[in-house]
Design brief:
Radius of gyration: 12 Å
Structural class: mainly alpha
Shape: globular
Helix content: over 70%
Length: 88
């Protein structure tokens, strides 16, 4: 799946929104920078997962937020499941 909202500002907005939504769903507080980081890494994870399961495609801006949100939730779940790690 191609995540192509265009421009660095749009990527930061996608990361911020996706990280904030994931923090709300997974009951975590990351701060603004943390939300952006979780959301951007989540966009990568979500892009990999959606490409693997759907075979690819274009998501657009709102689809990018959805994919990044799913990826961020998966990322938080995996990090919390690791032994010896501090929870996010």
């Amino acid at each position: 799946m191609t995540l192509d909202p265009g421009g660095i500002i749009a990527w930061l907005v996608v990361g911020l929104v996706a990280g904030w939504l994931a923090g709300m769903v997974m009951k975590g507080s990351f701060g603004v920078v943390g939300n952006i980081v979780v959301g951007l890494i989540g966009a990568f994870v979500g892009g990999l997962l959606f490409t693997w399961f759907t075979g690819g495609g274009t998501a657009g801006f709102w689809g990018s937020i959805a994919v990044a949100f799913v990826g961020a939730v998966v990322l938080i779940f995996i990090v919390r499941a690791l032994p010896g790690r501090s929870p996010l």
